[in-house]
Amino acid sequence: MTEQSQVYTYVYSVRFEGNKKAYTFGTNENTYHIEDKVVVETARGLELGEIITDFHLTENVNIHSELKPIIRKATQLDQDHHINNQSAAKEALKVCEKDVKHLDLNMQLISAEYTLDKSKIIIVYVADERVDFRELLKELASHLHCRIELRQIGPRDKAKIVGGIGTCGMETCCSRYLSDFDVVSINMAKNQNLALNIQKLSGQCGKLMCCLKYEDENYKCMKKDCPKQNELIDYNGKKYRVTSMNLLTKQCKLESREESLFLGFDEAFKDYIKRDPNETTEKLSK
């Protein structure tokens, strides 16, 4: 925490409606309980959140940024304002859609949200390129009469907000429980010997599916002492190419010009010595 920031005795974890991620807020009171609705100060303004953990002493928590405060326990009036703001935000989004269409802007609106005191509205949108929305802000200001923040997000964030059903038949991970996005690369699909069909490997956001990350470390461990695909190995005094491997059943296919063999890993790789990764893999002559 910075020297100028307020020092609080206790911290609580608070979650906001429609958001899986928890945020830490400070207070000098320890009278809040799990499921209590509270008014907190955020970078966006006053917001309504819910306590999801018991208090912790600030000195026992590793804080990397300035703590924002819990203002008070939410009253019934605060909760009524929150509900009314949600209805007002839907109407504001319709107004914004009309203005976007009128100005012919290339942006797709996703959601709108008022702060608790309704002094500010945050409108979230997706766009392929940078959008000049100066005229849009002027139009919105004349209709909404409050501060306006237009926030551009990427396709993964959009999928998280919109939600949907994945190819597994379950609700998408991002909208169900993920709080942050991990980096997902095509190498993870290669590690799992999946067919490199981008359409089948992509989620509703158009990016590689987050679930490719989940078992990646397990596959890396299983492949650690195995040869690479298409690597030449010695088996019973002959040279064979490893043309396929099933890491789950621990079965592989070895091929030479004369024959093809289907063997278990223990048998096929009994004479295998892991190559130095800097060595050039031996090739079969044509």
Summarize the model shown.
With 286 residues, this protein is an alpha+beta fold. It has eight helices and 13 strands. It folds into four domains: 65 residues, no CATH class; 75 residues, 2-Layer Sandwich (GMP Synthetase, Chain A, domain 3), CATH 3.30.300; 59 residues, no CATH class; 61 residues.
> What strand line-up does the widest sheet have?
1-2-6-3-4
Q: Report on the biggest sheet.
A: 5 strands, mixed, barrel
Which CATH class of the largest domain?
Alpha Beta
What is the total tally of β strands? 13
Overall spatial form: elongated
Quote the CATH topology of the largest domain. Answer: GMP Synthetase, Chain A, domain 3
Architecture (CATH level 2) name of the largest domain? 2-Layer Sandwich
Can you put this structure into words, describing what you see?
With 286 residues, the protein is α+β, with helices and mostly antiparallel strands. The chain has four domains: 10-74, no CATH class; 79-153, GMP Synthetase, Chain A, domain 3; 160-218, no CATH class; 226-286. Helix content is 26%, strand content 27%. The chain contains eight helices and 13 strands. The strands form three sheets. It has a five-stranded mixed barrel. It has a four-stranded antiparallel β-sheet with strand order 10-11-12-13. Helix 1 packs across helix 2. The N and C termini lie far apart (66 Å).
Which characteristics define this entry?
286 residues; alpha+beta; 4 domains; 4-stranded antiparallel β-sheet; elongated
Walk me through the topology.
Blueprint (H helix, E strand, L loop, with lengths): L9 E7 L5 E6 L9 E6 L2 E7 L4 E2 L10 E6 L2 H28 L4 E7 L5 E7 L7 H11 L2 E7 L1 H8 L10 H4 L9 H6 L6 H4 L14 H8 L8 E4 L2 E9 L4 E5 L4 E5 H4 L18
Helix pairs in contact: 1-2
